[in-house]
Amino acid sequence: MQRFANGLAPDKYDKFRTFTPSLTSIPYMGKLHRLHKLTGWIVFAITAVVLLLSVERTGSLWDVGEFILGAYKLEVVHPPGAPLFLLIGRLFASAGNLLSDDPALIAAFVNGMSAICTAFGATFLAWSTIRLSLLSLTGRDARAEVGGGQVIAVAGGGLVAGLAAAFTTSVWFSAVEGEVYAMSFFFTCMTVWAAIRYYTTPRELDYLAYRWLIFSIFCIGLSSGVHLLSILVLPFITLLFYLRERGQLFLTRVGKIVGYLFAASLLLTSISLTGKILAICAIAGATYFLGGRKLPQWAEFIAAGISGVLMIGIIQTLVIIGVPTVWQWFEIGMVNSGLPVHIGLLPTLLAYGGGLYLAFRYAHKHQDQGVQLAAMGIATILIAYSVIAVVVIRAEAKTPVNMNNPDNVTSLLPYLNREQYGERSLLYGPQFDADMIATDLDDRYGLVGDEYAYTNYKITPRYEPGKQMFFPRMADGSQGRPDLYKRWMGLDPSQPLPYGRPNAIDNLKFLFNYQIGWMYWRYFMWNFSGRQNGEQGYFSWDDSRGNWITGIQFLDEMRLGNLDELPEDFRNDPARNTYFLLPFIFGLLGLLWHSSKRGEEFLTLLALFVITGLGIIIYTNQPPNEPRERDYVLVGSFFTFCMWMGMAVPAIYEFVKARFRARGAGAAIGCSALVLVAPILMVTQNWDDHDRSEHTAARDYAHNFLESVDENAIIFTYGDNDTYPLWYAQEVEGIRTDVRVVNLSLIAVDWYIDLLRYQMNDSPVIDLQLSEDKLRGRLRNQVQYYNPQQPEAPCTSGPQVSLDEFMDEIATDKNLATQGGRIIETTYSTCNVSIRVDPGRLAQAPWLTPAGQPVVQNIPLQVPGGAIQKDVIAIMDIINSNFYKRPIYFAVTCQPSKFLGLQDYMQLEGLALQITATRTATPTNSMYPPNIGAGSVDVDKNYDLIMNEWQWGNFDVVETHVNTSYGPAIQSMQQIMLRTMNELIDRGDTERALEIGDRYFQAFPNMNFPFFFEAFTMLAPYFQTGNVDRVSDVVIQLAENTADRLDYFQSLDPQIVAQSYAFEERRGQYIAQQLLTQLQGSGNEQLRQQVQDILADYSFLVEPPSPG
Fold first, then answer.
1. Which among 233, 787, 855, 969 could disulfide-bond with 829, CB atoms 3.0 to 4.6 Å apart, if both were Cys?
2. What is the distance between the alpha carbons of residues 936 and 723, in angstroms, rounded to a whole number?
3. Where is coiled-coil annotated (predicted)?
4. How far is it, in rounded angstroms, from Cα 116 to Cα 93?
């Protein structure tokens, strides 16, 4: 019989391996086969229904809005792109667009795609668990027919594994939103399933087995167009390959192929030539030394796992980065010789195609199966990877969202390398307190007209040698991270580091305490034990937020303190989920059973569990603190544990059968029902905080931002959650497409500034004084202060200039040479810059002159004294070039440091601050945050927006879980409503002020936003105006919530309160004190007495009124 499609003879192949008993002796047909398939489809049906019922019906936070609009219009999303996700998502988006005129259905269908992907992934996982469980029950040598009880037990295990995987909190979170992680879960599960199909295929069907092997590799290639999680399955595949094909010459054949491929991939890396030569020689020596020797099976097993790890690097370097690297080699020379752009792709395809042809020809001539499989695997990955062309094609179309503009290979390569996010040290690098002593500049090409030229460089810092170490875990010296590292070291952040710290021990402690303990184990227990609440956890010693729990009170109290007096809103938090350790216990039971039955297969699955969990943790080298919880990247590890959860069913069945002599279907059904308690508990506990079917907040809050600004406005935004939802609202739902959203997080790079020069939907181009060639690549990344007339004088001693004159100076090329040989393209000679208001042009720009406010002649700007960065230059250019043409706003969620000192010249209009030609001094002791309290307030517009335009995400009418990521937008709306109320009261318009207050308590009810300090601040205008009767129900609820929390804080150990609840306790005491004090003079004796009774234990906080 032929071993594979090209006709390899059995005798040519058999001498390279030792025959292993086949699976043909297992009657894997009939009732077992049917029940196997039926179980998978039951899993699919249940999970698909539950997940589809809980998907979000519009856009969501973070990257979801970007991916939905990317799928709908095939736009270019952030690096490294997800072209296959976008193509498949385009099909779902088109279906939603065809079925309804409601644009929100587009998002619902893309989100539904994630639910379907998750359901299919769970199905594949169920089938995988069934196959591995069957092997554990019968083994490869079993001759006896599989009993009915075994059939049901195995099927029950598959059912448990599939349901548990779909309903873990981390998987479910991604399953209801249109992000890449659900589809990545699908491809990873399908890859695992295909690899297990290869492994369990009988020997006489080798040709079919190898098709499954190649298909699993093809799945990995396809997943590169979604997310790279599936590539981590390669060690699992190589271990299965070893177990199935092992023989005394395994290392000779497979090891050499992997060694040669790895050596070839090194040629495409950025390491030095000497490093490449030494590495290749080392690989050749190791391959030669090990290849001719027979090693123990445990050594071969480890070698197979290492080969899989090397294959990850090979695929990444030879294909994912290698193809564009080779393309760039050919492209630059050929295009600069006069040939058209993209011509370098042709010789790249010929080079890879030629290499594969030679490999196939060699395999055919020498009957070499290993080379044939390797070549076929790389060929399928290359075919799948060709989807990356979508990124370049759509970038050339200049879509409205065109992240990094990768329209040629020189911009595609850093896009795929995610260079804008920087690099983290893995094996060797600096400690967080290392000083940078120099930088290495690696010139980068860019497309200029019809040829390539050096336009940019990659900066690689060099650090003092004494501050670098092997395996650095605390290596990030930016963004306040050193202080956080000190806290994890148990040191005072305000004090200097002791001599010799941090050291290797500190780094290892950080690895185990933070990276493994906090960023892996905590997430693992969220999924298999329970979760305390929906708050993001930052520190392991903070018992108030983000911890894992069990639901078993005495166990939880050992870690988190007394829970008897837990406040009602804490206890009823939808994100508080308890599984009583059942999933963990069943998973551990299945793990132990699997290891005792099939040790080698257990170790193979364990490798998958570790690599997709701890492997990711070690590779990403996460610093504290992340912008959000990162559990969603670890789902590969979690679903592997779910497979062991499923194996608990046959494990218990075997125990029952042996101990109680209970056989047959009844015992198997009972065991399945017992273990099914765990996934049933998971789905019932997780439903209320994962059901987003009624959520519209991301779209509604984006609508509120966009409706806050005038027609054709420019609005500067800052973070993901006040940019991506706005883009989604415009691109998908057509909301305020006349507004141009400018992201301050992206504006420091040339490609984003260039995109502003294009029309976006109904928004005209943004006029800019600096031309494209002035800002290309590295040009004007930083412009330094230099006054040739007074070189030693400070920047503030320079002349007074207008912003227009200042931009002229920035635009002038001076090309000054430095002592280091660098050329500085320009400088600026003064910090005294202002916008000079032209009274003659104000009539055409009425937004600059709010009614009743005097117009100023000059608007001073705060210009940094040492140097200004490209983002500041771009902001100033936009303001200067469009000041009289379009209204210009900053979103209230922007950092005040980006305002250029314009706070006194802004007017608060809804969720945006408009630049005006009037001045209102911002109080230095303002009760509002700096961005909310700036300048003046358009109270009439704000009143209309709050009462008639703003939408509330259904949080005002549906009791649900409100994700803490909505916090900045919610807090901003609350502060804006409060400031507008106070402004109206100051103007004598009490009724409209209180109407806004009433709307606040309707929009943010206690059921979703338990009344505490925020609600208390909103009561101040009612007390101030003597209208507390109007909100008496709010006052009573606030008093009850406050007493509930203070009772809880008093029940805790003082040390726990000091570490975790001190701030909240002070707030609660303040609320109690102020409520009791202010109600004494309110005139509402009944309300005062009610609150007095509720807060009776805390009346000592209030001083008794003085007599007389």
1. 787
2. 25
3. none
4. 14
